[in-house]
Amino acid sequence: MPISILQRLARPSTYVSLILALLVASFYLSGVGALADPWEALDLNTFRLFAVLLLVMVLTGLVCAVKRLSRDGIFPILCHSAALVVLLSALTLYLFRFEGTMIMAVGEAYEPIAAAYSDIRKGPLARVPAPVFVLSSIAPYGQQDGFTIIPGAGGRSVSSDGVSLVTDDGTRIRLVKRGIVPLVELAAAGGGTVAREYVRLDLDSPAGQDSFMFVNNPYEFSVRRINDSADPAGVVLQIAARRGKLKVAEGKVSTRLPLKIDAITLSIPEVKSSAIFQVSRRSGYGFFLAACAVFLAVQGWGVCIGLRRRPAGNGEG
Amino acid sequence: MNSGFSLIRPFAAFILFLVLIVATGLLLDRDHFKFALRCGKISAAEEARIKETVKHFNSLVADLSASMGKTNSDDLPATKPMRHKLYMDTGVSAMAKQVLVYDLASLEILSVKWHDPRTAIVRTKEAWNYQYRNAENKAELDIIKGMDDEFRYVLLKRKGKWLVHRSSGLLKELKHAN
Question: What is the ipTM score, two decimals?
Answer without folding.
Answer: 0.80
